[in-house]
Amino acid sequence: DESNFSALYWSSCRGYPDICKVLIHYGCNVNLKYRCGFTSLHTAADRGHVDCVKVLINAKADVNIQNDRGETALHLSCYRGFVDIVRILISANINPFLKNSNNKTALQEAHSQQYNHIADILVRYQ
């Protein structure tokens, strides 16, 4: 569209995993960065779209890719409190030690929002 976001980005943003699958099948780049360095995985994780996150990871989306603020999908899902997405990202071997531009890890993001149940998961993973 005119904002230079792809159909895959919008499908991830809106939570349409079946459309994501079709677009990936036809060659959409799962690691393409958009405004502020967000990928489709960042967007799906930030919006809480579990099934889209699964589709993107299965299509080899880079779970450790960082946006312009140094955030991974794990930072975003921890900040928002999306525990299911945190678990999925952990099972995809995301690096929990990456820091964002505020020098915070995903664990620190979870603590900052008082999501202690997510912090506990991350502590066990590390």
From TrEMBL:
ANK repeats lie at residues 36-68, 69-101. It comes from Lottia gigantea (Giant owl limpet). InterPro entries: ANKRD_45/46/60, Ankyrin_rpt, Ankyrin_rpt-contain_sf. It comes from the Eukaryota. The keyword Lipoprotein does not apply. Keywords: ANK repeat. This is Uncharacterized protein. The keyword Zinc does not apply.
